[in-house]
């Protein structure tokens, strides 16, 4: 299904799916697939990423950066905190809404990562030419398959200042284990909707894959302004990123069909915590995200 872009569209569409009563989704696998921006220090255009964590980086307090102290790294402050985004426990939000971070099944992620790695990814000369302007790896390398995490905000952000801030926030919200690489506008909304379906036993939260392909970079290469980079630069990553959703994704679909009986029908048992920052889904594995003071179970 196509959800539409942005958090409201994604949540509304996925809610409509599991609330409709038209489908038995209790054994269904959900592959959240789309394009995203990418951190050039972690990925390059055309790459396929698989996330263990999705972090809602836009759910923070925000000041215009010109109106905060000169030593503030950005205008973003975690809600209820007193410092701009830092990967430091002192900066942990004093107020959580529950959608700030989700964690999905790492066993399923590893299998999806392996399967996608079998594919020959699409690339173009035009994309390679723009990548070369970065002058450092992995930005200037060909597309690859990467395990790294997904950042969500309705704001379409760009630039090294925000990239640095949201990298810190990702690390903060995952207790030091997350790696910021993908920038998009839907994943946490989709996951919150699926979580609510799982709470009502309409679906299985352990059967979710987050796959994003990189269509553009989240910051400019050396010698290019951030405004020019976002608004005018021909990054040329869109076409290979669209192609690679199918090229990588079909390997996973084929595996599910081939090994449904005996493997996928039973599910791949997670070895890690899965769920949200509130521990809304009771399970045997304790959360490694969030804080015990917020846990429901």
From TrEMBL:
Instruction: Name the InterPro entries on file.
Output: Pur_nuclsid_perm
Which GO terms are recorded in the biological process aspect for this UniProt protein?
transmembrane transport
A Pfam family found in this protein is NUP
GO CC terms in record: endoplasmic reticulum
PANTHER family assigned: PURINE NUCLEOSIDE PERMEASE C285.05-RELATED
State what protein this is by name: Purine nucleoside permease
User: What is the originating organism of this protein?
Assistant: Aureobasidium uvarum
What high-level taxonomic lineage is stated for the organism? Eukaryota, Fungi, Dikarya, Ascomycota, Pezizomycotina
